[in-house]
Amino acid sequence: MKLKSIVTVALLLFVAVSLTVVVMRNTSDSAVGSQGDSAAAVEGDKVIAYYFHRTQRCPTCNRIEALAHEIVHQSFAEELGSKKLELRVVNIESEGNEHFETDFSLVSQSIVLVDMKSGKMTKWKNLDQIWELIGTEAEFRGYVETEIRNYLSAS
User: Fold this and answer.
1) By C-alpha distance, which of 45, 74, 68, 73 is closest to 140?
2) C-alpha distances in angstroms, 30 versus 23, 58, 59, 85, 120?
3) Which of 62, 100, 112, 117 has its CA 20 to 30 A from that of 123?
4) What distances in angstroms separate CA 120 from CA 14, 54, 115, 123, one per listed residue?
5) Nearest CA among 134, 54, 135, 143 for reference residue 90
6) What would the pLDDT profile of 99-129 be if each residue is shown by its tens digit?
7) Least confident of 26-35, 68-77, 118-127
């Protein structure tokens, strides 16, 4: 009787893990708003809002990227047009992008604001509350917009 229960639990776990892998693969293939990797060199003075992700992405990861994209394009159109602000989406698992993980002490998908002066990074800030706030879209939007606005005014 006990062996039968253990085998049943093991099979259920195997099915759950298999379904999770299939869902994650399908989700990463249909990432929302992905613009490809963009880790090219930076010229001049600007703030770069990076969205860093891994190859495997969950629905929440895609939601964070989509909201970041909306916030930047809706609330900072003037700054985007004048090139004071730039949004870059970077897969940190793509060849050549691995350094971002250590450069910014990344532990998960993240939005990082980087101040660039004459093409060189002078400071950066990881918006570390995005995972806490993603459940409430208004709070997430308010947090990201305020942080970008404050960062732009201080740069």
Assistant:
1) 68
2) 11, 10, 10, 27, 34
3) 62
4) 48, 25, 8, 9
5) 54
6) 999 999 999 999 999 999 988 999 999 999 9
7) 26-35
